[in-house]
């Protein structure tokens, strides 16, 4: 591994636009290449962000010997095939959430990464936000006693447009994979994998889920109540309840700067922990640190947690009548086939 970790971006969309700006505040890492299915789109992205090389196919970027790590930011169903190709090429991976469209797809990627000894991590930036790091420290130190319940919501009001990625089932559309992944991952981070999942909600005409309420339950009586929506704007707040108090994670909880600690019998304590850059820097730093240490998984966002979250999302989707599928043609081998 070179002193400088050289990154490539697969899929120059909105999230990638935000993430690449944070390389400016990450020491020892640089984005050197970008790939799109359209050469012109890749070239435009590269010019705007000062990136050296632009490719008109994903396969060309995977074959670039001067790229150490890839950030995959394509629609969810495309992650599976691209990740498998990247693992075969020996590239370390940061894969946007939701990690894949299906649990089986996630398991296949995880199995391939572990077999090859290649680093792979889900890009769940929430876990690396300084305020969330502090929350986990407080919970581990027993500041609120035993955690018994978690509440979290995340929703936006979007006008229905069946061809838009958010509403197109073939592109992994729906609230669960786009926003629900945050509330589920937050609960799983604090409480582990639930014993039962109960979901209710509604669908768009396209068949994608429009909104969902999830009740996660554990056999010892612990619960998590989670809400996600593309029909309603929601506050984006989370609360962690314990036997000795609770912690509010102020909006929006998936990239917060502030938490409020409420200990039983004490005045609330407001704790501010601002993020670096746009908030994406922390997950980039985690990948870079892991690569330099020779690790193949993150201790903060391990692949076992990714699989646990995918399992909950799939159970919820199935209860709503939604069936996601991976895109087998997500990694065209030439520009012509793109």
From TrEMBL:
* Ranges for domain Gfo/Idh/MocA-like oxidoreductase N-terminal: 5-122
Annotated GFO/IDH/MocA-like oxidoreductase domain residues: 133-247
Against SUPFAM superfamilies, the record matches this protein to:
Glyceraldehyde-3-phosphate dehydrogenase-like, C-terminal domain, NAD(P)-binding Rossmann-fold domains
Q: One Pfam match, by short name?
A: GFO_IDH_MocA
Q: Which InterPro entries match?
A: Gfo/Idh/MocA-like_OxRdtase_N, Gfo/Idh/MocA_domain, GFO_IDH_MocA-like_dom, NAD(P)-bd_dom_sf
Which keywords does the record carry? Oxidoreductase
One GO MF annotation is: oxidoreductase activity
Family designation:
Belongs to the Gfo/Idh/MocA family.
Specify the protein name.
Answer: Putative dehydrogenase
């Amino acid at each position: 591994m070179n002193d400088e970790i050289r990154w490539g971006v697969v899929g120059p969309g909105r999230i990638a636009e935000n993430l690449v700006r944070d390389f400016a505040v990450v020491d020892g890492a640089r984005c050197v290449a970008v790939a799109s299915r359209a050469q012109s789109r890749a070239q435009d992205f590269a010019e705007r962000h000062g990136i050296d090389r632009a490719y008109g196919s994903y396969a060309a970027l995977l074959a670039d010997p001067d790229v150490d790590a890839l950030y995959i930011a394509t629609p969810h169903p495309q992650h599976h095939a691209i990740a498998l190709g990247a693992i075969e090429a020996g590239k370390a991976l940061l894969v946007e959430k939701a990690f894949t469209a299906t649990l089986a797809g996630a398991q296949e990627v995880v199995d391939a990464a572990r077999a090859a000894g290649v680093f792979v991590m889900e890009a769940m930036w929430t876990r690396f936000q300084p305020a969330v790091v502090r929350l986990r420290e407080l919970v581990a130190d027993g500041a609120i006693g035993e955690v018994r319940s978690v509440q979290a919501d995340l929703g936006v009001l979007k006008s229905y447009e069946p061809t838009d990625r958010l509403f197109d089932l073939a592109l992994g559309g729906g609230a669960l994979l786009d926003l629900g992944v945050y509330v589920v991952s937050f609960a799983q981070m604090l409480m582990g994998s639930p014993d039962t999942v109960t979901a209710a909600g509604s669908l768009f005409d396209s068949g994608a889920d429009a909104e969902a309420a999830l009740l996660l339950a554990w056999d010892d009586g612990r619960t998590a109540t989670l809400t996600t929506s593309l029909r309603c704007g929601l506050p984006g707040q989370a609360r962690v309840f314990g036997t000795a108090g609770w912690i509010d994670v102020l909006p929006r909880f998936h990239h917060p700067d502030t938490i409020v600690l409420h200990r039983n019998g004490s005045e609330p304590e407001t704790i501010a922990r601002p993020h670096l850059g746009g908030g994406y820097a922390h997950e980039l730093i985690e990948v870079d640190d892991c690569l330099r240490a020779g690790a193949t998984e993150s201790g903060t966002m391990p692949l076992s947690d990714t699989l646990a979250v995918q399992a909950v999302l799939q159970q919820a989707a199935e209860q709503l009548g939604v069936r996601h599928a991976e895109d087998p043609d997500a990694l065209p081998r030439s520009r012509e086939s793109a």
